[in-house]
Each structure stands twice: as C-alpha cells, then as structure tokens.
C-alpha cells in the first residue's frame, strides 16, 4: 500500500526528524518527503500503517498534513 500526503514541512531537517518519528511507529514502512513539490509531499509505502495516525502524528508535531486522494 502506498499513501501520499500533502504537508507544510519546509526543511530537510524537519523532514528527517519526522521520518524518524514515523519510523518509530511504522518501522516496516518506506517513508520519504518530496519538499521540491509544491504540496511538500510525504510518501509512505508499507503493509501495516494507519494513514490517519500519520496525519495526527504530524499535527502533534506542529505540521499540516492531509491525505491526497
């Protein structure tokens, strides 16, 4: 399963920090940001993750996040 999210993460440093936090919750997932995209894309690939939990985790860390459909 692949899920794509729109975020407001602006820097590589913030992206790396968030990826570490996400991997703590979803260690079997492949996670990356495309900060060059206008939507500051977060892409998560894996078999056992909760998209709504990802949105909430980013929000708890002060960032906007929504699932792109």
Key phrases:
4 strands; 4-stranded antiparallel sheet; globular; alpha+beta; 35% helix; 69 residues
Largest sheet: 4 strands, antiparallel
Helix content: 25-40%
Task: Please state roughly what percent of the residues sit in beta strands, choosing from under 5%, 5-15%, 15-25%, 25-35%, 35-45% or over 45%.
Answer: 25-35%
Distance between the termini: 14 Å
- Strand segment tally: 4
Strand order across the largest sheet:
2-3-1-4
Report on this structure.
- This protein has one domain.
- The chain contains 2 helices and 4 strands; from the N terminus they run βαββαβ.
- It has helices spanning 12-25, 51-60; strands at 2-7, 30-34, 41-45, 65-67.
- It has a 4-stranded antiparallel sheet, covered by helices on one side.
- The radius of gyration is 11 Å and the shape is globular.
Describe the structure in brief:
The chain is an alpha+beta fold and 69 residues long. The protein has helices at residues 12-25, 51-60, and strands at 2-7, 30-34, 41-45, 65-67.
């Amino acid at each position: 399963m692949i899920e794509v999210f729109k975020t407001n993460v602006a820097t590589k440093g913030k992206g790396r920090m968030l990826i570490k936090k996400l991997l703590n919750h979803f260690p079997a997932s492949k996670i990356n940001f495309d900060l060059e995209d206008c939507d500051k894309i977060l892409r998560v690939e894996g078999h056992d993750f909760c998209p709504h939990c990802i949105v909430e985790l980013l929000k708890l860390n002060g960032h906007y996040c929504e699932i792109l459909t």
